[in-house]
Specification:
Length: 360
Amino acid sequence: MGFIRFLLALSVIASHSTSIFGTTLLPGNHAVQLFFIISGFYMSLILDKKYTHNQFRTFISNRFLRLLPTYLIVFAASWVLFALIWLYLGKMPATSWAEPFSHMPILVKLFTLFSNSSLFGIDLLSLFYIDTDGSIAILNSMNTGKTDSGLIWGGNLRLMGQAWSIGVEIWFYFLAPLLFNISNIKLLIIIISSVILKLLLISIGSNWSYFFFLPQLCFFGLGILIYKQSILNISNFGKISTFIFWILFNCLIIAFPFIDQSTSNFIYLPLVYIVFTILLKPLFFLTSKNRIDRFIGNLSYPMYVSHMLVIQIQTLLMKTNNGVLAAILTIIFSSLIVLYIEEPVDKFRQSRIKYSNHTN
């Protein structure tokens, strides 16, 4: 699964940059939602195999230890870049967040600072708009900038725009132990309810359909359901058949931009989700012991977190936004993060699990 996660991260980079070797891969929003399915599956795996006792506090704290070190490094680097640009220009650089931040009430400012620093609730900034008098409004709108009436989208208050999905993940982490332990029928009802809510919000033109946790819960729930009730029997798969299916799904991702747009949204994308749902569990377990694949997969999170910073630096220094260069620089930076930050932190997280299991 590592290489597939890597391709999904590249899809997000391409969606914010330009094509990578001639392909933009999957649309970024669908890559994010496939990541949500993987997250649901993986949380089920670790709850089943590692957190065998009632260890909610250890589970939650370990998830924050997984997310925060990389995020805070990129967060700090973003502020350093902002300060350097300010020094170079001799005035504060133009930003998407300065204007809405200046209008907000003090409590909303404090929440904005807290959520940007901790990731907790950072997704909620996407759910409202800010008027010039500081009032907060909720609109049925897909606008992610300034509306015709002058309202500014709250999502602009995120220093790292893509971090909204990490905020959504955190809400899921709090519910994961409960969702994993309920019956498949109850879980299916939750998934269907989430899908209905998502379709309803889409029909009224609300960006809550994408940025709000509950409409995205269906993807996390699907990942849990795949883990608990796989469509295919893993024991029936050998290395050759696994490799064939691995090639098949990677080809589906790479070939997407070359499909006729009139059929891609209604036929091809549903096919990607269906194939992914069927193959996720076999592919995960039959590639999980491959160290190279695991390392490549581990790059996906720092790639997702850091790519916008890399694109910004590239644009400032080279006056261009090149997808291939952005991808290469992001991969190099992410490799350093994995080797020198995430792997040492992961050893500490695993030791906490062992200690928690021993004391319980």
